[in-house]
Specification:
five-stranded antiparallel beta sheet; 25% strand; 139 residues; single chain
């Protein structure tokens, strides 16, 4: 289970809107002073993510809670967001290459595969309301 601290910002019916600070691993790195990512994180400041989860317990606005996300859900989401579009990019471009359609057509077909992958992922995540199985635990 992956856990993250969050603050309840809104409650609607059986859904809870949470705001969680995005955390970077830069604070644990030995070379954080010389790293570009660490310097960028220092100057950008705090960044927050807003997420919606099913209301599983009584909470109130402003309350600190812990959001729990199963590792399997995180891995499935990462595969869907990254691997599917890249996989379609390669499949479409390799199909164009196998048909000897030319380099420009290979590039265009690869981009079409990438766009189809991102569009399909977006639609699937938009229509799959139960796919994100995070839960809220009170502090």
């Amino acid at each position: 289970m992956i856990e993250q601290q969050a603050t309840v910002i809104e409650i609607k019916d059986d859904m809870v809107w949470l705001q969680a600070e995005r955390q970077s691993t830069c604070s644990q790195c030995q070379i954080k002073q010389g790293c570009g990512t660490g310097l960028l994180a220092k100057h950008v400041g705090q960044r927050f993510s807003k997420i919606t989860v099913q209301k599983t317990t009584d909470v109130s606005v402003g309350q600190q809670v812990t959001v729990e996300i199963p590792e399997q859900t995180l891995l499935q989401g990462a595969a869907l967001m990254y691997l599917l579009p890249l996989g379609l990019l390669f499949v479409f471009s390799m199909t164009a290459r196998a048909l000897v359609l030319g380099e420009v057509i290979e590039i265009i077909m690869g981009l079409i595969g990438l766009v189809i992958g991102f569009t399909w992922t977006r639609q699937r995540l938009k229509n799959n309301k139960d796919g994100f199985q995070a839960s809220v635990r009170e502090e």
